[in-house]
Amino acid sequence: MAAGTIRYWAAAKAAAGIAEESYAAVTLADALDVVRERHPGDLARVLQRCSFIVDGAPVGTRGHETVRLAEGGTVEVLPPFAGG
């Protein structure tokens, strides 16, 4: 199991009520399951629409259960947004 940091942005930050927190998980799917339990309610809905970047690499369409997390890594949670 790896330990690292999850960073929330925009609507995900508002739904979680914090900007970042630690994870202890093997895969991205495991980490997201834990944060859904920690923050029941709006965050689960927001996460369904988010994109994720793990250690600087976009997850894209890969299954979250296939994305392994590294010790000391960072998961960025990016809700959809628009802007100029």
Just name the CATH architecture: Roll
Our Rg estimate from Cα atoms comes to: 12 Å
Total number of β-strand segments?
Answer: 5
Main sheet summary: 5 strands, mixed
Strand content: 25-35%
Structural class based on helices, strands and sheet pairing? alpha+beta
Span between termini: 40 Å
Look at the structure and name the CATH superfamily: Beta-grasp domain
Chain-averaged pLDDT = 94
Q: Main sheet: which strands, in order across?
A: 2-1-5-3-4
- Any idea how many domains? 1
Gross morphology is globular
What is the top-level CATH class?
Alpha Beta
How large is the count of helical segments? Answer: 3
What features would you describe in this structure?
The protein has 84 residues and is an alpha+beta fold. The protein has one domain: Beta-grasp domain (Ubiquitin-like (UB roll), Roll), CATH 3.10.20.30. It is built from three helices and five strands; from the N terminus they run E-H-E-H-H-E-E-E. A five-stranded mixed β-sheet has the order 2-1-5-3-4. The protein is globular, with a radius of gyration of 12 Å. The chain starts with a strand and ends in a 6-residue tail after the last strand.
List keywords for this structure.
alpha+beta; five-stranded mixed β-sheet; 84 residues; 5 strands; Ubiquitin-like (UB roll); globular
List the helices and strands and how they pair.
Elements: E1 2-8, H1 10-16, E2 20-25, H2 28-38, H3 42-47, E3 51-54, E4 57-58, E5 74-78
Parallel strand pairs: 1-5
Antiparallel strand pairs: 1-2, 3-4, 3-5
